[in-house]
Design brief:
There is one protein chain. The chain is an all-alpha fold. The C terminus is likely disordered. The protein has one domain. The two termini are 16 Å apart. The relative contact order is 0.22. It is globular. Helix 3 runs antiparallel to helix 7. Belongs to the EamA transporter family. One of its GO terms (cellular component) is membrane. InterPro entries: AA-Vitamin_Transporters (IPR050638), EamA_dom (IPR000620), EmrE-like (IPR037185). It is found in: Membrane. Its main location: membrane.
């Protein structure tokens, strides 16, 4: 099994790729159409592992739990976040709001999960938030309060999924779990896709490229590593890794779209790293 540090590094890279996927999807006819077919294709790829697990015996509790996780961590997080950006929330600001997840997760981890957050971790949470603020520049743009509320609800949806997954551990293997979550997400995205112009895919290179990007990097890579890390560490620690995604997203943007990286982004990135290093799990917490 790979060391946790390697899994965490992979999680940061893969999770940040979702913002790039949104940029790629924005060049297609419908972002919701891309997200719908993303989960349809992932479901088709992973369903053999789900069927195999069901033949071996899959408790109803696992089916329900993984369905709930898919509804919150995939559908809720993405649908609300994408709609907020569509209504005018700048991508950088959306990343900043998403980076509030560790604060909310840490606040709930104590009373719900009995995870102790020590002084070092509290300092790390603060440094992480400060680093993200420096990295994204803090521009709020001209979106409505409703749009920002959707962005906040998107983050809360992922926090709820994280707390549920940690509070109700499940021994279902990763691939069958992702299959169930993706099937639920595809079903929930279907009506949004229909309302947004139709459900039939566009077979142009931009559409295919965006769907493929989301499948490889954001779904299998991002969510797969998220659940693996959560199973081996604390919810607070895994949540703190989200602090690194906005700066890493900027690196993605520089490499793929030649977007400039400012000095404040570099300083913010360094501050984020220090904050995450301070977020080591408390001894005895798993």
């Amino acid at each position: 099994m790979l060391p946790l540090a390697i899994l965490e590094a992979g999680l940061v890279i893969a999770w940040s790729s979702g913002f790039i996927g949104a940029r790629l999807a924005a060049d297609t006819t419908s972002v919701f159409l891309v997200l719908f077919w993303r989960f349809v294709v992932v479901s088709l790829i992973l369903v053999p592992w789900l069927l195999r697990q069901m033949r071996r015996g899959l408790p109803a509790r696992s089916l329900i739990l993984q369905s709930v996780l898919g509804a919150f961590a995939m559908f809720g997080y993405l649908a609300l976040g994408v709609k907020a950006i569509e209504l005018g929330v700048p991508v950088g600001t959306a990343a900043l709001i998403s980076a509030l997840q560790p604060i909310v997760t840490a606040a709930l981890a104590g009373p719900v999960l009995q995870e102790r957050v020590n002084r070092s971790q509290r300092i790390g949470l603060g440094l992480g938030l400060a680093g993200v603020s420096l990295a994204v520049g803090g521009s709020l743009g001209g979106a409505s309060l409703w749009a920002y509320s959707l962005s906040g609800a998107s983050t809360l949806s992922l926090v709820i999924a994280t707390i549920i997954a940690k509070a109700l551990p499940d021994n279902t293997p990763l691939l069958p779990s992702l299959a169930m979550q993706s099937i639920v997400s595809a079903v929930l995205f279907a009506p949004l896709t229909l309302l947004n112009g139709g459900i039939f895919p566009s077979l142009g290179p931009r559409f295919i490229g965006a769907v493929a990007w989301f499948i490889l990097f954001s779904t299998i890579g991002g969510y797969g590593l998220y659940w693996l890390c959560l199973g081996r560490s604390t919810a607070t620690r895994v949540g703190s890794l989200i602090y690194l995604t906005p700066p890493v997203t900027m690196i993605w943007g520089w490499l793929m779209f030649s977007e400039p990286i400012t000095m404040s982004a570099i300083i913010g990135f360094v501050v984020c790293i220090v904050g995450v290093l301070l977020m080591r799990p408390v001894s005895g917490q798993r």
